[in-house]
Automatic annotation (TrEMBL):
<keyword id="KW-1015">Disulfide bond</keyword>
<keyword id="KW-0716">Sensory transduction</keyword>
<feature type="transmembrane region" description="Helical">
    <location>
        <begin position="103"/>
        <end position="126"/>
    </location>
</feature>
<keyword id="KW-0297">G-protein coupled receptor</keyword>
<keyword id="KW-0325">Glycoprotein</keyword>
<dbReference type="InterPro" id="IPR017452">
    <property type="entry name" value="GPCR_Rhodpsn_7TM"/>
</dbReference>
<keyword id="KW-0472">Membrane</keyword>
<feature type="transmembrane region" description="Helical">
    <location>
        <begin position="6"/>
        <end position="28"/>
    </location>
</feature>
<keyword id="KW-0552">Olfaction</keyword>
<feature type="domain" description="G-protein coupled receptors family 1 profile">
    <location>
        <begin position="1"/>
        <end position="155"/>
    </location>
</feature>
<keyword id="KW-0675">Receptor</keyword>
<keyword id="KW-1003">Cell membrane</keyword>
<keyword id="KW-0812">Transmembrane</keyword>
<protein>
    <recommendedName>
        <fullName>G-protein coupled receptors family 1 profile domain-containing protein</fullName>
    </recommendedName>
</protein>
<dbReference type="InterPro" id="IPR000725">
    <property type="entry name" value="Olfact_rcpt"/>
</dbReference>
<keyword id="KW-1133">Transmembrane helix</keyword>
<feature type="transmembrane region" description="Helical">
    <location>
        <begin position="138"/>
        <end position="157"/>
    </location>
</feature>
Amino acid sequence: MHTRLCLYLVIGFWLISSVIMAAICYFLTKVEFCGPVRINHFHCDFNTLILFACSDIAPLMFLTLVVSTILCATPFVGVVVSYTFIIMAILKIKSTKGRKKAFSTCSSHLVVSAIYFAIIFTLYVVPRSNNYFQVYKSMSFFYLYVIPLITPIIYTLRNQDFQKALQTTMSEMKQYVINVHF
């Protein structure tokens, strides 16, 4: 990908996201809320706030559903299309070892992406159930905090130098524990 195309994509997505979020925030300011409420959550998000609305939120919820579907589907389709091309390129590799290494490298990204998209889709697109707030709270914690923490670990574990350093550290710790306790 050329630098200019990458820059246009980043600027385009930032602008589109900013306009969409400004529209949702504008409509959210028109919603009436029922008295003072303490939000039992990690962060103040649209889905958390809307639970305490007293006025009619149907138009806002419809807008949010449409926007969420588009914002979830667009990057998902981009990832699927990209990986289709990547898999087609990998299948053209003649050596089995090369194909295995390429698939191994791509698999960690696909796992993290699949988890992320599944959670986002579940939180923002799937209709709400009776225990929605508890599910939302735990899933939002996972996608806001756990995935960003495990992503570098997953990619780091793929690095050969890191694996060797980890093995060395683990064997040194094992020797230390044996020497101290025995």
